[in-house]
């Protein structure tokens, strides 16, 4: 019962990874606010309270405590209501898991402003809004844990996901800023890059043999494999863990590097464009990173 007595908000908890995290946190002793608007993968069309209510029902059937919330994370006032639901229902808030998300995949030169903004609003703005709504309560209580969902699409790269990749890399940077700004208040902030076959990955193309092999690997990775890491990061056992980026891939756990200088060159008289081409480029080029994507880096079968 690593989360006994704690209250967690889990966004996008009506299914997939979010549901598994909510269930695991409830089993670990937390009371859970299950947030989900019940929208389609793209965030378009009608919404429904049913997915969130189903997660709540499972938690309650197992003897846990949970309430549903259907506010969209993409609005500041809604984020306030999500956090207030925790306060009204359980009297406090200790954990925020920013998991809600949508996809509007499109090759960059065809991506519309609407496709860009829709994804940024839910992922990046939504993570800020809900985190900011909880931050003052965390500061006053002298403790709190943020667990944000990033993605290797942002950390490494992927085709047709400029909006999603930008949002997810932005979340990693935001998490680091939260960790720096709120460490003195006992507040921690970490990221998980989850691997799982779920609604969010079901749009991955599988038209070539290599793509089909990648999808087959993902299908072996069930959403529940990400939940133990989220529970740990939210618990007091992780009291010294903050500002980090982890990944859960089936039975593997990874700690990600964060950008740091890897090579430098110096010219006492300064640089001209010509000098960069003649001197700096040869010195730096051998350290260039390849133009790869997530599937190229994580190319082995899950174990």
From TrEMBL:
Family stated for the protein in its record: Belongs to the short-chain dehydrogenases/reductases (SDR) family.
SMART domains listed in its UniProt record: PKS_KR
Limits of the Ketoreductase domain: 6-203
Name listed for the protein in its UniProt record: NAD(P)-dependent dehydrogenase, short-chain alcohol dehydrogenase family
Alphabetized InterPro entries for the sequence: KR_dom, NAD(P)-bd_dom_sf, Peroxisomal_Beta-Oxidation, Sc_DH/Rdtase_CS, SDR_fam
Pfam families the record matches: adh_short (PF00106)
């Amino acid at each position: 019962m690593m989360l006994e007595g704690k209250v967690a908000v889990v966004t996008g908890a009506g299914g997939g990874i979010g549901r598994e995290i909510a269930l695991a946190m409830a089993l670990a002793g937390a009371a859970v606010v299950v947030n989900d608007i019940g929208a389609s993968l793209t965030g378009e069309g009608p919404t429904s309270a049913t997915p969130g209510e189903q997660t709540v029902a499972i938690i309650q059937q197992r003897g846990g405590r949970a309430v549903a919330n259907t506010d969209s994370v993409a609005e500041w006032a809604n984020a306030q209501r999500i956090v207030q639901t925790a306060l009204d229902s359980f009297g406090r808030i200790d954990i925020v898991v920013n998991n809600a998300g949508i996809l509007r995949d499109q090759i960059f030169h065809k991506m519309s402003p609407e496709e860009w903004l829709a994804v940024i609003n839910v992922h990046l703005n939504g993570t800020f809004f809900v985190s900011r709504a909880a931050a003052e309560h965390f500061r006053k209580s002298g403790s709190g844990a943020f667990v944000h969902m990033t993605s290797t699409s942002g950390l490494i790269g992927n085709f047709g996901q400029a909006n999603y990749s930008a949002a997810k890399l932005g979340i990693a940077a935001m998490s680091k800023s939260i960790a720096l700004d709120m460490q003195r208040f006992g507040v921690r902030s970490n990221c998980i890059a989850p691997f799982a076959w779920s609604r969010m990955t079901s749009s991955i193309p599988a038209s070539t043999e290599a793509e089909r092999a990648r999808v087959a690997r993902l299908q072996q990775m069930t959403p529940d494999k990400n939940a133990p890491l989220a529970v740990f990061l939210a618990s007091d056992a992780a009291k010294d863990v903050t500002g980090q980026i982890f990944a859960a891939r089936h039975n593997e756990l990874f700690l990600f590097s964060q950008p740091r200088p890897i090579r430098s060159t110096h010219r006492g008289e300064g640089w001209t464009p010509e000098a960069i081409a003649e001197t700096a480029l040869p010195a730096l080029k051998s350290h260039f990173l390849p133009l790869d994507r997530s599937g190229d880096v994580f190319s082995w079968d899950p174990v």
